[in-house]
Amino acid sequence: MNFTLGIIIAVGVLVAISLVFIAMDPGYLSGIPVKPVACTKEHVPVCGVDGVTYNNSCKLDSAKIELAYPGECVIEKPLAEGWTRATSTQHPGIGHESHQSVMILPLSEKVYSGTLYYNATEPIQLITLHGPLKDGEDKGQAIWTADGVTKYALTFVNPDNAQGEWKFAGNALVIHTKKTTPFSVDYMVEYEEKAISDSVITGTIQSVQDPGMGHESHQLAVIFAPSSDVYSGILSYSASENIQLVSLRGPIGPDEHPEKTWTADGTTIFEMTFVDPANKMGSWEFSGNAIALHTKNTTAFTASYSVSAVKSGGMVSPISAMPIAPSTHVISIANGASAPGCETTNQCYLPYSLEIIAGDTVSWSNGDTAAHTVTSKNSDGPDGVFDSSLFMAGNTFDFTFDEPGTYSYFCMVHPWMTGEVIVNEKFNELNGIAVGEPNPSEPVVPEVVTPIPVPEPIPAPPAPEPTEKRAAPVEVTIPQGAGTPGCETTNQCYLPYQVEIYSGEPVVWINADSAAHTVTSGLPGTPDAFFDSGMIMPNQTWQFVFTDSGEHDYYCMVHPWMTGKVVVS
After folding, report:
1. Residues 465, 504: contact at Cβ < 8 Å?
2. 284: part of which helix (H) or strand (E)?
């Protein structure tokens, strides 16, 4: 009995001990161990709060990390000194509601001009505005409006890149995409904002028959008429059709024989720079004694534009001997260039090829998240002309090219990254390229325009003496500023607008303006060949003796809003 009781007690003690161990280790009763879950290789990236991109949510959970947001982690690149970062919003223009934009410079009554440098997360378009337009001025050019009432002409340029630079002039500056999703852009803009003047203009102009000899079947819209002043600046334009760009230098001397010339009378001759950008919207950096838009068509075109120029006295020197002031050009290292692939489209350095003038400086901006080098090379490797060494994200490297030639370069860390800089002689054609596109096309082959001989005038038969003899000829003054629209509203383009004389008396026209003008009989666009002064340069005069009685209307072929009248008794 006692033995049996002892066994029972011993068993009870063992059971109690077992229960204690079970309580201490619940897994003791778990049976078969639970195998870990195997994550698939499905690529649905997610970003963890630790800033690491995981292949999918399973791997994020396995790492016991909380989700920050779907998609790959975005590593924000450092912002270069002097630059601004902005994120786009819905574009405010009517018809652009599904587009995105960043307003760089807001609408102004003044004219902005300068250079925009940009580095966006995707390819963008560039916009500048001109206006506001008056009623009836929207005649085929691109138009922008936020309310359907106040309208602006639109210069819209698609450089088809995410990084680059653009020279512009206008009443506003915008970076734009045609997508609904926002984009981000880093930018720096170097600009001036100037009030409207005789050399800073925003306006709309209708072309007229080109008064140049040999160009009678062409159309011309004069921005700055031939002048003794030299205009240098930036023009942005929006036309109703593709146009060409013209600048004149002169009048040239008898010993000068340029390849391409323009003349209205066969006597006063200008050297002509003729650029065909093959577009109806763009920008142009220019210098010359006259600036105009041109087509080889017989029908008129309309163009809205903004121009900001400075005037300097005296004729511009021949193009072949005019040194161009050194400037700085930006090349961006594309985000993601450290991974192979950008070399297939030559987009590791943007632009891949840059054409500059000897003495210019190139600044490479590292827009990638990785470090890079800019190292000159030849077929054998580095040639020692220039080498940036390793420079980090957000930094720049500058080098000034003094010698003409073609310089190839690459990144020593990522050798698939290549680019080139083409350095031209210092005395190149002066600003003879359109800059609406970052990479200009090949130079235009000059077109020689041979002046047509002017026939000698046939002497008029003697006229009867007037009953009253004047002491001096009647004078008509072309006032300062007549080359800018506005004087026609008060008939003050020629002063006086109307003169009355007797048959056989002369009229003398005095050009007191800084621009060249003509005195051409007829109505604007329809000369009647009774008299034509040709180009009257500033401070010059032209005289004509009237023998036929009647009313003789006349106008300026260069500025067709300028009209006057001579009444002969």
Report:
1. yes
2. strand 269-288
Whole-angstrom distance between the N-terminal and C-terminal Cα of the chain?
164
The partner residues of 304 in beta bridges, in order of sequence, read 204, 238
Judged by DSSP in three states, 28 sits in helix
pLDDT band at 22 (very low <50, low <70, confident <90, very high): low
- Does the predicted model carry a pTM greater than 0.85? no
Find, among 205, 225, 174, 188, the residue nearest to 85 by Cα: 188
Rounded distance between C-alpha atoms, residue 525 and residue 79, angstroms: 55
- Parallel, antiparallel or unpaired: strands 328-333 and 361-366: parallel
Let me know: does 205 contact 221? Beta carbons within 8 Å.
yes
Rounded to whole angstroms, the Cα distance separating 9 from 27 reads 28
Written as six digits, the tokens of 513 are: 């303006």
Go through the chain and tell me how many residues it has.
Answer: 569
Residue 496: is the preceding peptide bond cis (ω within 30°)? yes
- The pLDDT tens digits of the residues spanning 543-569 come to 999 998 999 999 988 788 899 999 998
CB distance 274 to 244 below 8 Å: yes
* Burial classification of residue 253, based on how many CB atoms lie within 10 Å of its CB (0-12 exposed, 13-18 middle, 19 or more buried): exposed
Quote the strand ranges of 429-524, DSSP E: 474-478, 498-501, 505-511, 520-523
